[in-house]
Specification:
This protein is globular. The chain has a domain at 2-23 and 50-126. The relative contact order is 0.13. It is mainly alpha-helical. Residues 134-139 have low confidence and may be disordered. The longest helix has 24 residues, at 105-128. It has six helices and no strands.
C-alpha cells in the first residue's frame, strides 16, 4: 500500500495541484460549472461560489498531499513540510505569469493551513502510537 501511495497517488496529486494552478481562469470556472451541472449542485454553478471552492480546494489538496507525504517519508517530515510549502509557493508564483490568473496570498494561506492540519494530525497519530509504521523501539513489549 505504501508503494502505491508513494509512487502513484502522491505524484498524481502533485500533478493535479500543478495542473489546476496553471490552467486559465476560464477553463477552471468551466470545470466548476460542469461539476455543478453534472451533479445538480446549484451553489457550485453560481459565479460567487467559485472563490470559496478554490480556497477550500487549496486546503484539501495540500492537506492530502502533505498527509500522504508524511506517511510515505515518515523519517523526514520536517523536510517534507518545507518542500510541500515550497510547492505551494511556487504554484502561486507561477499563477502570476498566466494572463487570466493572479497570485493570491490567501490561496497560499489556505494551502499552508492544509499542510499544518495534516502535520498536526500526523504528529497526534504518531504520539498516540496509532501509526502502522511503528519501529521496534516504540512497540510495546509482550
Amino acid at each position: 500500500m505504501l508503494f502505491i501511495l508513494k509512487f502513484f497517488v502522491l505524484p498524481l496529486l502533485v500533478g493535479l495541484a500543478v495542473y489546476l494552478s496553471t490552467i486559465e481562469a476560464t477553463s477552471l470556472n468551466a470545470i466548476y460549472d460542469n461539476i455543478g451541472n453534472e451533479f445538480d449542485i446549484v451553489w457550485i454553478t453560481t459565479g460567487n461560489s467559485h472563490q470559496l471552492i478554490s480556497d477550500i480546494g487549496h486546503g484539501i489538496i495540500y492537506f492530502t498531499i502533505a498527509l500522504i507525504s508524511f506517511v510515505s517519508f515518515r523519517k523526514y517530515y520536517r523536510r517534507t513540510t518545507g518542500l510541500i510549502m515550497l510547492l505551494a509557493a511556487a504554484n502561486e508564483i507561477f499563477q502570476s505569469f498566466i494572463l487570466s490568473r493572479e497570485a493570491n496570498w490567501q490561496d497560499f494561506a489556505y494551502s499552508v493551513s492544509g499542510i499544518a492540519l495534516a502535520l498536526i494530525i500526523y504528529i497526534i497519530i504518531q504520539s498516540l502510537g496509532l501509526s502502522p509504521h511503528l519501529s521496534e523501539k516504540t512497540q510495546p513489549k509482550q
